[in-house]
Specification:
Elements lengths: L17 H4 L5 E6 L13 H21 L1 E3 L22 H18 L4 E6 L5 H15 L2 E5 L20 H10 L6 H5 L7 H9 L28 H24 L7
Parallel strand pairs: 1-2, 1-3, 3-4
Length: about 260
């Protein structure tokens, strides 16, 4: 199971070390995952594992250079589109809003930095996190950005089966970091979703938004939207490497946008 970057997990410090180890230029990374179905071949905690691993690798690469620290993971978030599946856990919109506002307030109150980078491991959180980022900046003075690692994977719009959930990309990343949790025999038995056009019009159309769920057999097979049969650990490693390099540039931009903390 992925662990925090050695020596840079905020929870491993004592309260007396906060003032000596962290400063106004430090960056706090908050992994956010989800407990939700990922088809019959991936565990419910897939998004948690991948958010933590992305964070760990980002800190391993950039932590000393940019003074990055890891906050405790938010494991349950907004996953209403998967609630049909046993084991899926989702906050309400009100609950997610309250949780993130409380966390934002506590980062600003308890730590000597206002720099916060959220590493979002679950695509269903994107809309609410983008809206809340405005609140967290305006109400608590946080210098904030949200990284969506899944969006950095090259997406071929012409694929017969667009990669949305539990397919080649996520399965490859899980094979790279936690292969013992991938049920390869179950992945091999998955069928193609009925058609990519339904996925494009229901999920990917930038001009129209629809509520959708992964038990809709027009877009998914056993909760999967994508082709997990094409996954490999090698492809997963390439995804992680790409995410880590892109993240460095974003976090440098975050520091460039920093304003002095009011006294």
């Amino acid at each position: 199971m992925p662990q925090a970057a050695p020596g840079r997990a905020i929870g491993e410090l004592t309260f007396t070390e906060i003032a000596t180890r962290l400063g106004a230029r430090s960056i706090m990374c908050l992994p956010i995952g989800s407990i939700e179905q990922h088809g019959p071949h991936l565990p419910l905690s897939t998004d948690v594992i991948l958010a933590e691993e992305c964070t760990r690798r980002i800190i391993a690469r950039w932590g000393e250079v940019l003074d990055i620290w890891q906050l405790p993971t938010v494991a349950v978030s907004l996953a209403r589109e998967h609630e049909w599946a046993p084991g899926t856990m989702s906050l309400s919109i009100q609950g997610m809003t309250a949780l993130m506002r409380d966390l934002g307030r506590e980062v600003a109150r308890a730590l000597p930095t206002r720099n916060l980078a959220i590493i979002n491991g679950h695509g269903g959180n994107r809309g609410i996190l983008e809206a809340l980022a405005q609140d967290l900046r305006a109400d608590f003075g946080l210098n904030i950005c949200i990284l969506h690692p899944a969006a950095w994977v090259d997406v071929d719009a012409n694929l017969v089966i667009p990669e949305i959930h539990g397919g080649k990309n996520e399965t490859s990343m899980m094979l790279a970091v936690a292969p013992h949790l991938v049920r390869r025999d179950q992945a091999a038995q998955l069928k193609n979703p009925p058609g990519g056009e339904a996925v494009r019009t229901t999920i990917l159309d930038p001009a129209v938004s629809w509520p959708w769920t992964t038990d809709d057999n027009r877009i998914a097979d056993m909760g999967v939207i994508g082709d997990a049969r094409e996954a490999s650990a090698e492809f997963g490693e390439r995804i992680f490497a790409h995410v880590v390099e892109r993240a460095g540039g974003v976090l440098k931009q975050l520091l460039d946008r920093q304003r002095p903390i009011p006294r």
